[in-house]
Specification:
With 259 residues, the chain is α/β, with parallel strands linked by helices. The chain has 10 helices and 14 strands. Helix 2 crosses helix 8 and helix 2 runs antiparallel to helix 9. The longest helix is centred in the N-terminal third of the chain and has 22 residues.
């Protein structure tokens, strides 16, 4: 009798385990470069090193809406597109702009936010506007984060035209440090992290004229049209119900964005 009772308990335990497994949400892996505040960056939450920011919160909202568990994989920005292509991650979300070159490798979702490529210079710099970077004979050295649109734009517009040199760094912080130490003449990077870098480094300023204005979207494998449709549907719904605008407003207040 005891053996039968033990067997019944074992069966019930196994069945409960199956039920718990069935209740578990499937995972979606997001690739990002968590050195890009306020879109993605590291912060200790309840003593745990956590990736937070606009992209992290929007991705979590999208996954929750679709019934998935979000897993964020931190990697070099330049590795994200390849990781999407090879299936290492399900989607890439890192303040990423749609470009013709990237569209050759991946699909992109609808736009969820707008960014500005800003120019950081030392106080008193003779670079007063974006136009100054295109003056023949000046040959400025421009610091960028490698593989970002700042890198692409400056390469196409300036370096390829023989108007200057582009120095590429693994992250924005390294590019700004190169500016502080005089290794580069300016840094072209997204406006929001630019504000954080300028606030943290005395003697740097952001020029009033932007280098470029761009729209951010989510990179998804060309082999996963179903996920693309699902994410686009979620972005529409979460925009209409105010979730995404509220997330952006949390990190970039409307009055600040209007400056």
């Amino acid at each position: 009798m005891k053996k039968i009772f033990a067997l019944i308990l074992a069966v019930l335990f196994c069945l409960s385990g199956i039920a718990l497994a069935d209740d578990a949400k499937p995972e979606l892996h997001m690739g990002t470069n968590a050195n890009f505040p306020p879109y993605e960056y590291h912060e200790y939450v309840d003593d745990v090193d956590t990736i937070v920011g606009i992209d992290a919160e929007i991705a979590a909202a999208v996954c929750d809406y679709l019934g998935y568990e979000l897993v964020i994989d931190d990697m070099e920005f330049g590795a994200i597109i390849t990781a999407v292509q090879t299936g290492k991650i399900d989607f890439g979300m890192a303040g990423m702009t749609v470009t013709e070159e990237r569209l050759e490798s991946v699909n992109f979702s609808a736009t969820y936010a707008t960014g500005i490529q800003a120019i950081i210079v030392p106080e008193g710099s003779d670079i007063a506007s974006a136009d100054d970077l295109f003056v023949e004979g000046k040959n400025y050295i421009i610091g960028v984060q490698e593989s970002t649109t700042g890198d692409l734009y400056c390469t196409w517009d300036i370096e390829d035209e023989g108007l200057g040199t582009v120095d590429r760094y693994k992250n924005g912080a390294d590019a700004v440090q190169a500016l502080v130490t005089g290794k580069v003449d300016c840094v072209v990077i997204d406006n929001e992290p630019a504000k954080a870098f300028v606030a943290a480094n005395q003697g740097l300023v952001i020029l009033e004229t932007a280098y470029a204005v761009e729209d951010y979207a989510i990179a998804i494998s060309k082999d996963n049209e179903e996920l693309l449709e699902k994410i686009n549907g979620a972005l529409v719904a979460l925009t209409e119900d105010g979730t995404i605008p509220a997330i952006i407003e949390k990190y970039i207040p409307a009055e600040e964005a209007a400056e």
